[in-house]
Design brief:
This protein is α/β, with parallel strands linked by helices. It has three domains: about 160 residues, HUPs (Rossmann fold); about 90 residues, no CATH class; about 80 residues, Beta Barrel (Elongation Factor Tu (Ef-tu), domain 3), CATH 2.40.30. It is built from nine helices and 18 strands. Strands 5, 6, 12, 13, 14, 15, 16, 17 and 18 form a nine-stranded antiparallel sheet that branches. A five-stranded parallel sheet has the order 3-2-1-4-7, with helices on both faces. A four-stranded mixed sheet has the order 9-8-11-10, with no helix packed on it. Strand 10 and strand 11 form a beta hairpin. It is globular, with a radius of gyration of 22 Å.
């Protein structure tokens, strides 16, 4: 009998995942990951870890499976939290959930499961695993397109996929709820958690202020007709211009006007609207660029601002990650894929262009809020085949 350790989060998805594996004849062990100890930044009414841990224990008792809590807070701080602080300090916007899956759930947690003699780990992710003819594995989108979470697993390796199971990937969320109700699982009606992976919803400003101290600076509004923006949008959109089309805008104070004061450029992200506290402008303001070196935040009016919308992005060669090596591009090659640059974004049409220095992605349509530090993931049909950190 194959043994599988399920990451029980205290939610309905992982509860049903454990039940389904039990029905398939696996020997199932439930394990809850505690990744966080600092209650001061957690919005306690939303997904407090202690309630989740208790719910996970109740599910294990209902299913009659062994259960334990594993404390991974040290590894989580070193691999996720410190990384987050470093990225925000550089004016980049990290995606901790992608990193949590790569570094915690399918690495530290997987190793802990193997020490228990597990053949696999399983989670309640809405995605699917395929086994290809040559013995490699594919990461497929979940059948429920509204809940598909394959993007969050875009940094997994073949080795990690080989030891992973995703029992609810073939189901709709409504079907998962129905199974939970039919079996009388205590999590059947529990609302989905929000926020950081296995941590809960945090107050990001308070969280960041633990390490990144407030530092007042100017918010500079850049007009839509600023020369460098106009020049960018006059470029021909083709592969020959992809390097120029992928370059981030770099504004200076002299190119705009001061419209507000901020508390620290490292607290903001490209595309952000809330929290800017800019009044008296005809249209809503959005962050279009961040300069942490000079502690400046650049804004533009309306989300159609030309500096917020670009044709291309770049991924450094060191940041290109292959999920399925069969789809890797050699230097000089290009190929069309479906692309996503954030969770829940509809798949976008575009071309991947491999050059010596890295990967360029040229989109068929303008992309709003291309954000350094976030992950771009590319799909061939239903399969997520690669990803990389946006430069």
């Amino acid at each position: 009998m194959k043994r599988v350790v399920v990451g029980l989060s205290g939610g309905v998805d992982s509860s049903v995942a454990a039940y389904l594996l039990q029905q398939e004849g696996y020997e199932v062990i439930g394990m809850f990951m505690r990744n966080w100890h600092d209650e001061s930044v957690t919005i306690s009414d939303d997904c407090p870890w202690i309630d989740d841990s208790n719910d996970a224990l109740l599910i294990a008792n209902q299913l009659g499976i062994p259960f334990q809590v594993i404390d991974l807070s040290k590894e989580y701080k070193e691999r996720i939290v410190d990384y987050m602080f470093s990225e925000y300090q550089q004016g980049r916007t990290p995606n901790p959930d992608v990193l949590c899956n790569r570094e915690i759930k399918f690495d530290v947690f997987l190793k802990a499961a193997e020490e228990l003699g597990a053949d696999y780990v399983a989670t309640g992710h809405y995605c699917r695993k395929a086994t290809h003819g040559e013995g490699s594995f594919g990461l497929l989108a979940g059948k429920d397109q509204g809940k598909d979470q394959s993007y969050f697993l875009c940094q997994l390796s073949q080795e990690q996929l080989s030891k992973s199971l995703f029992p609810i990937g073939e189901l709709q969320k409504s079907e998962v709820r129905a199974i939970a109700k039919e079996m009388g699982l205590v999590t059947a009606d529990k609302k989905d958690s929000q926020g950081l992976c296995f941590v809960g919803k945090i107050s990001l400003p308070i969280f960041l202020q633990q390490q990144l101290k407030p530092k007042k600076g100017d918010v500079i509004e850049i007009p839509n007709n600023e020369a460098s923006i106009v020049a960018y949008h006059q470029l021909a959109v083709n592969e020959e211009n992809v390097v120029a089309l992928s370059k981030p805008f770099h504004f200076t104070k002299e190119q705009g006007i001061v419209v507000a004061e901020h508390q620290g450029a490292h607290y903001y992200t490209i595309g952000q609207r809330k929290g800017l506290q800019i009044g008296g402008r005809p249209l809503p303001s959005f962050v279009i660029q961040i300069d942490t070196e000079n502690n400046l935040v650049f804004s533009g009016q309306d989300d159609n601002h030309l500096a917020l919308n670009k044709w291309a992005l770049f991924i450094d060669k060191e940041e290109i990650h292959s999920v399925n090596p069969a789809f890797d591009l050699k230097v000089g090659e290009s190929k069309r894929f479906d692309i996503r640059i954030r969770y829940r974004q509809k798949l976008q049409d575009g071309i991947l262009i491999r050059k010596e220095e890295g990967m360029y992605i040229l989109f068929d349509t303008l992309q709003r809020g291309i954000t350094p530090g976030q992950f771009a993931a590319w799909y061939f049909e239903e399969e997520l085949v690669g990803s990389g950190v946006i430069s």
